[in-house]
Amino acid sequence: MLQGNAIVAQSGGPTAVINSSVAGVVETWLANPDAPGNIYGGISGIKGILEGRIIDLAEQKRSVIEGLRYTPGAGIFSCRHKVTAAEQERLVETFRKLNIRYFFYNGGNDSMDTANKTWQAALAADWEMRVIGIPKTVDNDLAFTDHCPGFGSAAKYIATTVRETGIDLESVSTKNKVTILEAMGRNAGWLTAAAALSKRYEDEAPHLIYLPETPFVKEKFLADVERVYRKLGYCYVVVSEGITDENGEYCFATGGKDAFGHAQLSGVGVALKDLVESELSIKARCNTPGTAQRSAAHWASKTDADEAYLAGRTAVEYALAGKSGLMVTFERIADEPYQIRMGQTPLSKVANVEKKIPLTWINEEHNYVTEDFIRYARPLITGEVHMPMKGGLPEYVRIDLNRGRL
Amino acid sequence: MLQGNAIVAQSGGPTAVINSSVAGVVETWLANPDAPGNIYGGISGIKGILEGRIIDLAEQKRSVIEGLRYTPGAGIFSCRHKVTAAEQERLVETFRKLNIRYFFYNGGNDSMDTANKTWQAALAADWEMRVIGIPKTVDNDLAFTDHCPGFGSAAKYIATTVRETGIDLESVSTKNKVTILEAMGRNAGWLTAAAALSKRYEDEAPHLIYLPETPFVKEKFLADVERVYRKLGYCYVVVSEGITDENGEYCFATGGKDAFGHAQLSGVGVALKDLVESELSIKARCNTPGTAQRSAAHWASKTDADEAYLAGRTAVEYALAGKSGLMVTFERIADEPYQIRMGQTPLSKVANVEKKIPLTWINEEHNYVTEDFIRYARPLITGEVHMPMKGGLPEYVRIDLNRGRL
Asked: What SS3 class is residue B352?
């Protein structure tokens, strides 16, 4: 077995269960008597490692590591940072200096690209390493895995919110008869589509779902809303922040770009609300849960939280078995009863590929998803996670980022 | 005892626990062997009663009435409708025709005004009635009661959401370092202030809270945000949808009015996000939970749900004891351990009065609340309500509005 220390870091937008993966890594490493070194945490992802902000996670209280299984946010902090070639070399130098031979990177597409490049840089510098990616994203857009930890909890939250606000909408008879919920998902509509899990009856929310996978046509949207409204007296629309027009341009984009050059989106829901009010003269409301979608750990899916932990545990097992340059994946064996097995895919394959909803899972009218999607998503939102409560609120833990500093 | 039937109806915006009050009314009425008639439900509040849309609630399945204790929305539907003098007379005619002597109206300020006027109209028409108001509002702005059912659950949801999205904010180091959450509350900031329940540590969210009770000054807001941001590297702001400028005008109002002539508000959060980005050049996000604040029954406060039920039960007890023209109130005996007793206040007093946060509970800088507020609000968010789950989602009930139609 390759002797040396390990480091785990988190990257990109947090999820309700991203910390559960870190707990899986740390507890699995510490529980293994053959683990060949210390288990470190890089604060703020790759950026913190570059800056030497590293802690020994064995120094944290055991209860804090355990508490990561139900605590949202990125417990050891996260970043969005595109690593340059020069930084990749410095990163390998840091690993060499600290005798780090195992690197676990918990993130989405961009992070898998970073992990892959870091591995390549280590190979080029003749520093043998085991680099394993742990998938994480509420967007569920990583390829070569059945689904991503983080998605199930966000999907459960969105579906519950749509059910609750849908009941609210239908039960007030006199005003604001269109509700629009704007969901996250830059180029893939998985989380937006999850709203469909909410619907039990034909007249229940949601009535219309607009995804980034198919072009958004304003006139069609207005006709759809009017039709539902005329029939039921109300209409609930769920829309992705990332819908695009027929030329593939983001609708209502605000113009900014993030560190990876992705367009900054906001305001799609409010823009559609204004459109309904001005074009159809129907009062509308817009709910924009925003970052609550990715952090609502109080309503996390137990299936998701357990799988996130399993992904962390599997990453350590793969690395200690000598594997490298891989991302942990989930392979579905059956929908019902739901059954999965762990798999793997080369980081080089998964990096920067976006998995979108298959077009055959979207209806012909491009305003709802099919039963295939429901069958796929349903098992991912089951079960609840229980956490200690104090004063009526979840008592989440906090990693002490000054404890065990290297 | 006055012989005749009873009717219960719901009014205004729903809450997570408004149905719990209806369950309290119906179950208490049906369990009382001396109850002098049937217990009806008016569909869509006063509007449905005027239109003759009335059902016998004893015809519903018992499990459905029980399920109202955990189901959001207005189970027998609600309305916002200002009753005219002519309509008041027609209402009394309807009551006379159906031998309705007991009227329970579950709503906020406007609804208590409606209940009062209806009672006056019945007195004038020589139709003896017992009219009891049951308080309900997430805004917590009804006077002469310590607090209102609905507020505790919304407060728990807001505080939890701020804790979770606050952890999210602080844990991503590289972008969107200001989060703004827009909370409900037209003229009273109770729900916005409830965000403060979330804070455990000095550096934790929320950092700034802006309420409608004190004038909002843009320059002061920007200076506040910049100061927190310079100190911590991030800043979490909670703002009421109803903030006003120094002339008492709503900031960023969109211009519309509701049925009672109240200004329609929206977009305060987004407007502040834009302000932070343009004036301070700091990337910001805005979370607008919207109607989720008043319908998130999955995370209701048990204290609140139980008190809502108690308010319904007490309304029936008052009416059967011969009382009328009153609203049920809560009187606080102690904060810790929390203890209340039921009280009453004349509908004529409570109607159209808005209870705001005392200015002594707001800090001198007008950007946070004091410990007095925390002490007041803390007991109202305790405990969780458990509900049947199916497929990972809360299995809420639906009253069959076609069953038992009169």
From this structure: coil
Question: Which chain B residues are Cβ-neighbours of A304 within 8 angstroms?
Answer: none
- Cβ(A5)–Cβ(A65) under 8 Å? no
Which residues in chain B touch residue A77, judged by CB atoms under 8 angstroms apart?
Answer: 171-173
CA distance A30 to chain B (A): 24
Whether B287 and A288 lie within 8 Å, measured CB to CB: yes
Q: What was the ipTM of the complex prediction?
A: 0.96
Partners of residue A169 in chain B, C-beta under 8 Å: 291
pLDDT single digits (tens) B215-268: 999 999 999 999 999 999 999 999 999 999 998 888 876 555 545 555 555 589
Bridge partners of B242, per DSSP, are: none
Write out the two tokens for B383: 């405990």
Of B34, B110, B113, B139, the catalytic one is: B139
Report how far residue A196's alpha carbon sits from residue A372's, in angstroms, rounded to the nearest whole number: 11
Taking the C-alpha atoms of residue A288 and residue B4, their distance in angstroms, rounded to an integer, is 47
- The SS3 of residue B263 is strand
Task: Give the separation between CA A273 and CA A350, rounded to whole angstroms.
Answer: 37
CB within 8 A of B198, min separation 6: which ones? A393, B159, B160, B162, B163, B166, B204, B205, B206
B103 vs B119: CA distance, rounded Å: 9
* Closest alpha carbon to A13 in A147, A132, A138, A114: A138
Q: Which two tokens stand for residue B180?
A: 């703004």
Active site residues of A: 139
User: Which pTM was predicted?
Assistant: 0.96
Nearest partner of A308 among A7, A104, A158, judged by Cα: A104
**The tokens of B286 are what?**
């805005």
Average pLDDT over residues B109-120: 94
